[in-house]
Structures are given as structure tokens and as C-alpha cells.
Amino acid sequence: MDFKNVLGKSTGIITYDNFSTLDVSSGIKGNIDNLKEDLLQIEYHNNLILDLGWYPSFNKKGAFSISIIKDFNWENPIKVQKCKSFEELGNFITEFINYCNNY
Question: Which backbone phi and psi does 35 adopt, to 5 degrees?
Fold first, then answer.
């Protein structure tokens, strides 16, 4: 999946991005030293934040967690998904960006 193309479809502003530098072709193992809690954050005009991280950081048994936060209410995200592969993550990022774009 071409994540840069997917991220380019967002109408939000990317405020933090360590995700785009990952080499997806190397898989999780090849990127484990760069997989951490803070990977990507996109802020939208409608008080939504799309947040992506790997939990626990640098742990090969971890997982991606992608969330949509409304009005900075981090305790109660309005949408959350977890996955362990870039392939699954591609589907979730596309879904979450579409959700935020059309909220």
C-alpha cells in the first residue's frame, strides 16, 4: 500500500509524522526500532484528531493503534482499531481518514 498517497487524501493537517519514514516493504521486523507510541497525528477543522501509534513501543509483540479523538477527549475516543500488519493498517487508515474528512 502506498501510504503517502493515502495520507495525501486527508483534508486535515499532519501535525506529527514519523510514520511516512517507515519502510513498509521491510515489514514489522524491519521497522521495530522505529515503531513507537507517537507515529502520526492529523488534526481536522472539526475538532477531530487522527492518532496512530505502536503499543508498546519497540516491542515486536505490539500492535498499531489508530484512534479518532473529538474535542481533545483522549479518554473516550470515538473510534479505535488495533492491528498487527501494515496491510490491515492500510485499510484502517483509509477508513479513518474518510471518516474524518466527511465528519
Answer: -85, 115
